[in-house]
Structure formats: structure tokens, C-alpha cells
Design goal:
It contains five helices and 13 strands. It is α/β, with parallel strands linked by helices. It has a single domain, classed as NagB/RpiA/CoA transferase-like (Rossmann fold, 3-Layer(aba) Sandwich), CATH 3.40.50.10420. The strands form three sheets. The protein has an eight-stranded mixed beta sheet. The longest helix has 16 residues, at about 25-40.
């Protein structure tokens, strides 16, 4: 029996950054558009009334501004995370327009203000990853903030990722919260099953 090779998170981060640098910005934008098209067709997205979605602004994160606009214009509610570093918790902001979004001191986008964390009404979480495994273990920037957030909900958890960010096996711990699905420019991966879904309506 062949043993699985688990790649340490530190190594995964380096590999993901290296792979990202191999693509032109034009290619990245095209990949992001295909990812957006795929998630728009998912039942989890189409039937969700309250959606928690990050703003893609860090290196390696899939852009989500247009996706947020689509949710907002459809009459549904979209909630944007704001990290409280003192408590280590995400608060949330009910998105009402880009006028309330700022660039923080670390260079990424977030709301000016946000309310205390409340998750019971969220139907879908759309979250970022620097890398993710086929089994749903995601790698972020090392703070563990999303794991802390997601362990409090049973709502569907979907990662948006480029295909080059997907790894077969990634080192994980009991604190890591697995995501349910991964949406890339090529496929939708159901991490709870062995089957990998490849929609036929989009070119790979």
C-alpha cells in the first residue's frame, strides 16, 4: 500500500506563491472569471439568501468584487469580514456599497466598521485560500482566523482557488476546519466525496 505524502503547510505556501508567479496577470483574470462563472451556477450559491464573502485583495486570492456586486444587485444580503486582531475573531459588515470599504494598514480591503460576529443566518460561506487539498484542508496566511470562524457553523463552506493552488495532500491538524467544495477555473471539487465534478458547460 502506497503511503500518502503530506506536504507541510510552510512548503505549500512557498509552492503556491511560486506557481502564482508563473502566470501573467491577464491569465489570472481569465481564470478568476471562469471561477466566478462556476460558482454562479452552483445550487449552494443560487439558493443562498445570506452569503458571507471575502474581498479578494491579498496575493493569491481570487478576485470577488464582481461576485459581491452580483449578490448585492440580486436583492440578497452579502456580509464582508473584518478581522479584530485583538480578539482573533472576524466581525461582519452588511455590504451596502463600496463607499464603506477601505484599504487597511496591511494593504488589503475591509469594511470601515463591522458588528459582532453572528453566523446563524448565514447560508453560504465563500472563503479564500493560499492553497487547499482535495480533501478540503485549506492553507491561509497562518493566523487560523477562518478556522476559528468556520468551526461555529454547519453552513456550506466553499473555497475559491486557482487550479495551481490545489494539492493532493496537505499536512493538517485537528484544529483545521475542512471546506465542503473547492471551485477552480477547471472544476468543482466536492471534498466530502471521492467524485470530482467537471461541469460540461465551460471550457477547461
Amino acid at each position: 500500500m502506497k503511503l500518502k505524502t503530506l506536504i507541510p503547510k510552510s512548503e505549500v505556501r512557498k509552492l503556491a506563491v511560486k506557481r502564482r508567479a508563473e502566470f501573467r496577470e491577464e491569465d489570472i483574470r481569465l481564470k478568476a472569471k471562469r471561477i466566478e462563472e462556476r460558482i454562479l451556477g452552483m445550487d449552494e450559491f443560487r439558493y443562498a439568501k445570506n452569503i458571507f464573502c471575502y474581498i479578494g485583495s491579498r496575493p493569491g486570492e481570487v478576485e470577488t468584487r464582481k461576485l459581491i456586486d452580483i449578490i448585492d444587485s440580486s436583492g440578497r444580503s452579502v456580509f464582508i469580514p473584518k478581522l479584530n486582531k485583538r480578539s482573533g475573531n472576524f466581525h461582519r459588515f452588511h455590504f451596502m456599497g463600496w463607499d464603506e470599504i477601505i484599504t487597511n494598514t496591511e494593504g488589503w480591503k475591509e469594511p470601515k466598521l463591522a458588528m459582532e460576529e453572528e453566523l446563524t443566518d448565514i447560508d453560504l460561506f465563500i472563503i479564500p485560500a493560499l492553497a487547499v487539498s482535495l480533501s478540503g484542508h485549506r492553507v491561509g496566511y497562518g493566523g487560523g482566523y477562518y478556522d476559528k470562524l468556520l468551526k461555529q457553523t454547519f453552513a456550506p463552506k466553499v473555497v475559491l482557488a486557482y487550479e495551481f493552488q490545489v494539492f493532493s495532500y496537505i499536512e493538517s491538524s485537528s484544529r483545521d476546519i475542512k471546506v465542503d467544495k473547492i471551485v477552480t477555473e477547471r472544476r468543482i471539487i466536492n471534498t466530502r466525496e471521492t467524485e470530482v465534478f467537471q461541469p460540461e458547460n465551460l471550457n477547461p
